[in-house]
Amino acid sequence: MESTALCFAPPTGLPINFKHSINPIDTESYGVAKWPLKFNNSEKVSKETVTEEREMASATGNSIHRSSSRPQLDLSGAAIQGNFEERDPTILLPNQSDDISHLALDIGGSLIKLVYFSRHEGQAANDRRKKSVEARLGVSNGTRRSYPILGGRLHFVKFETTKINECLDFIYSKQLHRGGMDSRHWHAEAPNNENAVIKATGGGAHKFADLFKDRLGVSIEKEDEMDCLVAGANFLLKAIRHEAFTHIEGQKEFVQIDPNDLFPYLLVNIGSGVSMIKVDDDGKCQRVSGTNVGGGTYWGLGRLLTKCKSFDELLELSQQGDNRTIDMLVGDIYGGMNYSKIGLSASTIASSFGKAISEDKELEDCRPEDISLSLLRMISYNIGQISYLNALRFGLKRIFFGGFFIRGHAYTMDTISFAVHFWSKGETQAMFLRHEGFLGALGAFMSYDKHGLDDLMVHQLVERFPMGASYIGGKIHGPPLGNLNEKISWMEKFVQKGTEIIAPVPMAPPGTTGLGGFEVPSSKGDTLRSDASNLNIGVLHLVPTLEVFPLLADPKMYEPNTIDLSDHGELEYWFTVLSEHLPDLVDKAVASEGGTDDAKRRGDAFARAFSAHLARLMEEPAAYGKLGLANLLELREECLREFNFIDAYRTIKQRENEASLAVLPDLLMELDSMSEEPRLLTLIEGVLAANIFDWGSRACVDLYHKGTIIEIYRMSRKKMQRPWRVDDF
Ligand SMILES: Nc1ncnc2c1ncn2[C@@H]1O[C@H](COP(=O)(O)OP(=O)(O)OP(=O)(O)O)[C@@H](O)[C@H]1O
Ligand SMILES: CC(C)(CO)[C@@H](O)C(=O)NCCC(=O)O
């Protein structure tokens, strides 16, 4: 909220979340510039920064350390260009070569992952405002970091590696290779900078370096893949609040990792192939094992055997599968009996695909659904088992699994967890990461110096889930929204089409047996979501729009969620409250923008968007991370901003401020006439009375319709029985 009111609490009406707003809304643009651009046919240089030695070191399993060759921001001779009073003056960095990139890539065998940065609009003005607020309050976060973090957002996007041209088009359309659309230096006519460098990792950083030079005129600076995976994982585990979770028998549970107690751990990255890395510290790691039976195997073999056209299709197929028709179970061999002496139940799979040996069984006789499930189970279980053995080898108690093979898919995670749990007898814990597929790309992004990301802690980074903004895999889930207008019309269409556009793929629980312990690997509820990456990964705001309240003694320790919505009863209650309150909020929001037709349309779109989020969360409360009431309120606030409602309570605040100012002299006189002790008590009571005004409570809202807050305040001081009293002061 823009805090302008004199005397009342944040109009959430719910627990104060101690955050105040700093920045305007996210106005992400997916406008695509015309391709092709003027390319320069400069010589093909590919700067090698990864030395042979380092590559050898990682290949042979020696410890590897992060590269220190990083581009630096050269601030010498920096000067403001033009008018100092200007809202957003351009700062000239005369000695800076134009090679600061806002994009990093992980180009793997199957997928290209992009992490890119977009600057907040009006960032400079906000920074100034924030500084002046801090100066007034006598606090400063400035000492926390040695240099400022980039003010903006991190976005996550993926493409299939075979469609690298789509990826290049995307980079070009957003001018990411030139610092993004918001770059002050960018002009369509400007010549390409010969020195522009993009950090990239994965095999494709080597394979496609020339293509990047040819098509975008940029050089790829290669970062070691294992280093990047580890840097990305460490960053996520330290900086993102709800990053790691366990997934056992359909139950997802977020685990808050203590950054001081993170190491050592085993990182298992399941991409096309699988890498297992022992991580001892920041920048200290060793690839201890790997297996070539990984995500590529599932997708490759699965495609051949089922004729599926896409990975998603294959994964969804597995949902309807029954692996007992393909896998040979212990019971099949032992005449329906358990082999208890060695701990094998009859339902344990004795041999994956073992039933396919039967002479009267051809591929056509097998259901593609069953094949997909058997394959998924075989590969996931195998990876879980090898991971456990490596954890055992090095005495590691925690294994984090990443890579795009996982796809937040419940069955995959349950199977891996089961294998680790079963073989370690519960001693080793399998954990998953929400940004599973982006570890390498994030690590490559981290390798740019001076972005300040290294210093970010959990409470400083905020994740947001804008509507329809995910552009993933070269496929658009939700629209490629160019501007607010498109966003609104998309919401209108969304309503006409029902929920099919962004709603998760509804899937029946698989009736599968054969996991050797739990008969039916059920997932929560009746629905599963295979493509967890659609809405489950948001946009990371590096300078949050809702800033941590600067007077908090210890922001790390402050938990704004006084109500945990993992309790289903609470969840239902609050969802009802928020849904019922929605029309009233929309009225206020529309009024705050002058009640114009445009505001009404936006208000309508906001209501639909927020309702869609609520529906999504009702179905999978942990979809966006651990859900508490404060998160839900922040989501609502953010959603308002998406539709350009900067402060829904603006008009009310204005009215109240006027009313308050009108009576302030009388109130002060009244206070002045009191002796010291009753005066102090009245002040304390006044502050508390003002703070309990609760927009979420219908009683308060009804009361408010009958008068202004100041009247309510006066009345409450005189007549109303308060549900609290001041014991001591
Ligand atoms: N939309 C998709 N298209 C293709 N594969 C997908 C998709 N979604 C998930 N996958 C799975 O993710 C795997 C790729 O994962 P990831 O992107 O982490 O690895 P990679 O970097 O491509 O591979 P590597 O690191 O071995 O080079 C695929 O092999 C497949 O199993
Ligand atoms: C070759 C890489 C590292 C490329 O990402 C990956 O696919 C992998 O770890 N494959 C497994 C290779 C092996 O250790 O058998």
TrEMBL record:
Q: Which InterPro entries match?
A: ARMT-1-like_metal-bd_sf (IPR036075), ARMT1-like_metal-bd (IPR002791), At2g17340_3_helix_bundle (IPR035073), ATPase_NBD (IPR043129), Type_II_PanK (IPR004567)
Question: The Damage-control phosphatase ARMT1-like metal-binding domain covers which part of the protein?
Answer: 585-729
Pfam families assigned: ARMT1-like_dom, Fumble
List the catalytic activities from the record.
Answer: (R)-4'-phosphopantothenate + H2O = (R)-pantothenate + phosphate; (R)-4'-phosphopantetheine sulfonate + H2O = (R)-pantetheine sulfonate + phosphate; (R)-4'-phosphopantetheine + H2O = (R)-pantetheine + phosphate; (R)-pantothenate + ATP = (R)-4'-phosphopantothenate + ADP + H(+)
A Gene Ontology biological process term: coenzyme A biosynthetic process
Q: Which family does it belong to?
A: In the C-terminal section; belongs to the damage-control phosphatase family. Phosphopantetheine phosphatase II subfamily.
Q: What is this protein called?
A: Pantothenate kinase 2
Which species does this protein come from? Answer: Nyssa sinensis
Q: What is the lineage of its organism?
A: Eukaryota, Viridiplantae, Streptophyta, Embryophyta, Tracheophyta
